[in-house]
Amino acid sequence: MLKHQAVGVFPDNWRPFVSALISISFIPLVFATLFAFVTVFERKGIGRIQNRYGPNRVGIPLTKIRLCGFGQFIPDGLKSLTKEDVVPYAADQVVHFLAPVVLLVPVLLAYAVLPIGRNMTAVDFDAGLLFFFAVGGAVELSVFMAGWSSHNKYSMLGAMRAIAQMISYEVPLILSAVTVIMIVGSLKLADIVAAQNLYTFGIAHWFVFTPWGLAGFILFFIASLAESNRSPFDLPEAESEIIAGYFTEYSGFKFALFFLGEYLGMFAISGLGITLFLGGWTAPFSFLAWVPSYLWFFAKLMALVFIFIWIRGTLPRLRMDQLMNFAWKFMLPLALVNIVTAGLWHFMGAGWSRWGVCSALIFGAYAILGRGLMQNQKLGKRIYRYAE
Amino acid sequence: MLGEQIIKGMAVTARNFFGSYVSKDRLTTVQYPEERLTPKENTRQFPFLVYDGDDAEKGLRCVACQICEKECPPQCIYIVKSRDKKPDYKGQAQLYPATFDIDISVCMSCQICVEVCPFDAIKMNTEFELSTDDRFGGLLLTKDKLAKPNEHYRRIHPSEAAVVDAQLAEEKARAEAKAKAAAEARAKTIPRDQPT
User: Does B7 reach chain A within 8 Å, measured CB to CB?
Assistant: First the structure.
């Protein structure tokens, strides 16, 4: 609405460009602000989990107003912008320079198809979901560029780990999203949201409230943790093992770009999770439908980001073999079972019987796979052979 | 069942998260400039010089023996002896330091100077807010900045200061008794010589 008025000011032949510019500029503006906010939010959240205050000093500059420390991102940003940009002597200069850019571009492109609110999609593709995953695949390229061009063994190890992890987890990520495509019958994200914008007894038809949707959402969430390199899947940048992983040799603004890219990637994939399973911009209850749609989207996004932070504050980092076992021996089979379940759900038709059958199928698969995963672990008191 | 322990762990962190807003006892950190923890009695930062009485120049215990200067591992102490003498707490004439500088940018707070001092003249201070924008002059403490009254020592290290005070009082008493005995002896010896 506002956009239409603003566009109307310009002459006719300019209008398409101005319209596109407004839709595009909205995305970096809002999500970069959100990034600044979330960096402080994360530090405060983790502080509270560890019974500390976290940053609580910096507020509005030159005043005594503290804002609970939410001005912290200003000095943080200034610091990273004014730091020296060191490029290693042995590095591949061009690739080293391009890597952060190559990270940021696909991440921002992914936002193009996200429906942030009612009719608030920058580009509403028919194959939006496919576009999202295709663009998301380019992140691995950037990570490997960074690791390879730095000419540093730690960067290289981090990049290798990142590639192994991201490719492994992309499989369950996409397979868990496939269930939604099967049920909705469309790759268009607006259609997927519209399919969830129905209410029975005032409760929304979000896919997370169905057995296959719940399993799919949990699988999707775990895979998105791994895709965005968040703890407990932060092996690519495990600071206690390999310094900072693939961005060891980055400093100043380039490091900030990596940081930004990582957080924007996290928001994008959470946004997709919301769109697929949590009803996108729709309200959970029909009587709350008057709240603006984009507020629902951002509320859900913040809730998911909080869970990301909560998990980071709780779980220790996995070992590489645990990571791979989990992806290939547990998540992949469960995602396949989930696809079968979604098919059954569709063909059994409405009724209570499909709830029982589908829940039993998923729960049975979960129990069996979980037992299989735990079986090989010899848990118990550790026996030291040499050090005693 | 797989994932059970993860849920338990998440519950623990959630309890910490919300608990830290509800009960202040959970918070382990202190908001430094406003709130401070009382320092432990054995806290030590950088050395200072003790003086008795009110006058820093007159009551300074240091006799410029330079043992601390020689023992100091990073060699941050610089002493120049005086040419004249002044009486110490026992009334004995002693040298005093004309210059006594400690460069606290070099000092490593090892307390060796305190341990070697035979006169209990140098002790460790607890002052730690010493940051300055002058990194050469500001971190070089001269004699007038180093000299602190004995009351200050009693306040920051009460039990240690009590021991030192008792020891010094005893020494002083012994010295006085000795001087008195010597005077008496002299008084006795003089009359014996007189008759001849």
Answer: no
Sole residue written with tokens 């949201």: A193
pLDDT at A71 over 60: yes
Please tell me which of the candidates A52, A314, A370 has its beta carbon nearest to residue B13.
Answer: A314
CA gap B196, B194 in Å, rounded = 6
> Quick one: pLDDT band at residue A3, thresholds 50, 70, 90?
low
From chain B, the residues in CB contact with A50 under 8 A are 16
> What is the ipTM for the molecules in this complex?
0.74
Burial label, B190 (beta-carbon count in 10 A; 0-12, 13-18, 19+): exposed
- pLDDT band with cut points at 50, 70 and 90 for residue A235: confident
Domains of chain B, CATH where assigned: 47-180 (3.30.70.3270)
Contacts of A366 in chain B (CB under 8 A): 2
Q: Chain A neighbours among B 8-37 (CB < 8 Å)?
A: 9-10, 12-14, 16-17, 19-21, 26-29, 31
Q: A84-109 pLDDT, tens per residue?
A: 888 888 888 888 888 888 888 888 88
Over residues B110-122, the mean pLDDT reads 89
Quote the CA–CA distance of A328 and A325 in Å, as a whole number: 5
Residue B2: closest C-alpha in chain A? A370
Question: CA-nearest residue of chain A to B5?
Answer: A315
Q: Which two tokens stand for residue A312?
A: 């980071």
Contact (CB<8Å) A51/B16:
yes
The rounded distance, in Å, linking the Cα atoms of A382 and B153 is 53
Dihedral sign (CA B177, B183, B186, B187):
negative
Percent residues over pLDDT 70 in chain A:
95
